[in-house]
Design goal:
single chain; Rossmann fold; six-stranded mixed β-sheet; 9 helices; binds adenosine-5'-triphosphate
Length: 251
């Protein structure tokens, strides 16, 4: 099955009179790995949640493969959309295997837990452990396995690696990219971290005050493109790279 396209068509969401997402229109090709970046409060999570209807827009539509997500029951929609967020919310009284299979079980189906653990590089022997006996990175892998269990076409990651140490974060990021490619997903990744966006995504959208103010490839961004807001976010990774280079040269 070809990867699913995603369209935001004039999407607006207001909270208390403020447009937190303000008339966003953008088309995302199936198979893209899009990073949504921007300063805190710019509306990234709110926009992301209009895809799986955790947020219902006040105006506009979201289309997956041309179908309006507002049509039909939200639980059915969510079965086709993997969702991973920071502090993944595993059920503490369920084992790893039960956590991974919960979505499928609610839908009246079985999940191939062993295959899913393999997919996210967790030893099968962990299936019977409880979340409290796992590291943060391992818990996040369980969350990813759970999100992938219903074989979604779209994967949403909301600061999914936020609470992890940089090495685990980097490893999981690379693994998500590999899974994205292998499973033919359309993936949207919300992140504060411009370096992460540049290294993982095929396209970077920059949000500011509810609007998309930058839309560029990582290569364009690295070469100074994407507009002013994007370049101000580029300052951090650029500065870090310069300082590392200076260290290498004994500075
Ligand atoms: N349910 C809500 N009720 C009222 N205001 C909300 C609600 N959800 C979000 N907001 C406000 O909307 C704005 C955008 O929030 P959002 O979480 O989308 O931003 P963000 O870019 O993802 O931020 P961060 O990077 O800090 O997570 C913020 O000012 C937030 O306080």
């Amino acid at each position: 099955m070809p990867a699913q396209s995603l369209v935001f068509d004039g999407v607006t969401k207001r909270f208390g009179g403020t447009a937190v997402v303000d008339d966003v229109s953008v088309a995302i090709e199936g198979g893209s790995l899009v990073a949504l970046v921007g300063t805190s409060g710019s509306g990234k999570s709110t926009l992301l949640k209009t895809i799986n209807r955790l947020v219902e827009p006040d105006a506009g539509r979201v289309l997956i493969d041309g179908s309006d997500v507002a049509e039909g029951p939200a639980p059915l929609l969510r079965r086709g959309i993997g969702y991973v967020f920071q502090g993944i919310g595993l059920f503490p009284h369920l084992t790893v295997a039960e956590n991974v299979a919960i979505g499928a079980r609610i839908a009246g189906r079985d999940a191939d837990v062993a295959a899913l653990l393999d997919l996210v590089a967790l030893p099968r022997a962990m299936a019977d452990r409880y979340p409290s006996a796992l590291s943060g990175g391992q818990q996040q892998r369980v969350g990813i396995a759970r999100a992938l269990a219903p074989k979604p076409g779209v994967l949403l990651l909301d600061e999914a690696f936020g609470a992890l140490d940089p090495v685990t974060r980097d490893t999981l990021g690379q693994e998500i990219r590999a899974l994205h490619e292998r499973l033919g997903l359309t993936t949207i990744l919300v992140t504060h971290d411009m370096a992460e966006a540049l290294l993982l995504a095929t396209r970077v959208l920059v949000m500011q005050a509810g609007r998309i103010v930058g839309d560029a490839s990582p290569r364009d961004l690295a070469n100074g493109g994407g507009g002013e807001a994007a370049q101000s976010l580029m300052a951090v990774p650029r500065h870090q790279a310069e300082r590392l280079r200076a260290l290498e040269h004994g500075g």
